[in-house]
# Entry
Amino acid sequence: MLKQPNLTINEQGHLCLGGVDVLTLAKKYGTPLYLLDEDMVRERMGLYVSAMKENFPAGSKPYYASKALCCRELCRWAKEEGMGLDVVSSGELYTALAAGFPAADICFHGNAKTEADIRYAIESGVGLIAADGEEELRRIDRLAGETGVRQDVLLRVTPGIDPHTFAAVNTGVIDVKFGVPIPTGQALDVTKTALALPHIALRGFHCHVGSQIFDADPFCLEADVMTAFLDAVRRETGYTAPVLDLGGGFAVAYEEDQRAPDCAAMIKKVAARLREQCARYEYPLPTVTLEPGRGVVAAAGITLYTVQNVKSVPGGACYVAVDGGMGDNPRYALYGARHSAVIADRAGEPQTERVTLAGRCCESGDLLGEDVPLQEAKAGDTLAVLVTGAYNYSMASHYNRVPRPPMAALRGGVDRLIVRGETLADVAAYDL
Ligand code: LLP
# Structure
């Protein structure tokens, strides 16, 4: 079983999350059930906040990438733990404001924001909008003018870094839908536009090199490319950027052969590199922001299902079918992303089987994993899929009109519902 400090096995051999027997929670709330270890989420948030405070100039802080898991409680925890918030839609912004999250600590992202999104963000007083390109800058400028404000903006640029080869390969990695490429010279041109627009206050630049990054190298490379760019902008325009957003992407361990990186150590390395580069260009050290999502919530979450049936095909796979699937976790169906699993009733037993975890949707691609190590399973068992805190609930759908599951949080060994489960009436609630 995947080793994690908050996953233990009690004397009955049951899986425990944050010290609580998950079988009691499955009984109390039913399955499927998202469970979130609130203590762990808060600890992770605190870790990013303090690592950034220690290593970057005053005012530097992490913005929780709420796309990973967005609900009112998460926004409240982020506020209480001192994080900013990265939102990418009016829906995420609405949730944050409804939770009392201060607009000034929110950065609004997205590559295709609508006029309604931009107007909502400006009128709500969000601290920053990350503009994705020239057209959007002009749109923000016009709408800010109509509202009578000068909007603080970051310009999203594409540095041309592949996080998984650690090399700057300036072709494929800039040919993406996000941001304005640096290597082509477009980023510099658009910066000049931003500086000339009357209702835009350019605060600096945003970049993001990818997700599931296990060491500091891609971030260090990002610091190299970005400081060279900052220097080029200053030489051409005289503009010095006070803020540099280096994006998110800190990895988590999904399987036993992966090791979760030490994020504080990664941040320390990136900060050292940034200081070195700023000194080289004699550039004032900017305030730095980061946007961790997965690294904050993924490992704190598990999902419980009830095994409905088990089928072995001679010469084929052993299918363990559960009462959820791609509707609550589309990551395997979409990306082939692997999660570890365990039979919560017999978590201490060796995982001697390799099974296909099948979802309940009427589609053969609805799988939660293939070739997944597992204890021998039988109908009625509770299956726990691990490390589901990020990009599960936030990507859930109503496919086959299956209601989305509830989410319960555990704090100090006490459970409570933080998102209620949907009813059948909810599923049909918008039909006219
Ligand atoms: N900032 C920006 C601009 C991003 O695009 C993302 C993720 C993040 C921050 C947060 O990245 P994280 O720290 O969570 O890796 N649905 C996929 C992941 C998509 C990530 C999209 N952008 C999955 O299930 O793996």
